[in-house]
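Hey L., structure's done. Input below.
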Amino acid sequence: MPVTHGTPTITINHDHQFLVSDPNATMVPTSGVGFFARDTRFVSSYSVTINGRQPLLLDASTIDHFSARYEFTTPELPLAGTRDGAEHDIVLEERAIGFRLDRTILEGVHE
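Output:
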């Protein structure tokens, strides 16, 4: 019999609270992920965006049972800008900026 597994998730917990997210830190209401306390889901939808676009996930892992870290970089981002009083289309190249989201669950969720 082949071994199967479900969708990968990142799970952190503390006391009667736990948070389950997709590896890219998002929570989609239909996937059963979210922030739960005493068997009640309080947050069912969450996403990280930059200028309306999802960042590119580099890595995600739990740091401790109550903490997770998500490493991202930017997708290609069209930006509007002015130079010398004239409008110019500016594009931020993919992977130009890296950033980290640290999430902790202790008496609530902290980022």
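The chain has no helices and ten strands. The chain has a mean pLDDT of 91.

-- N.
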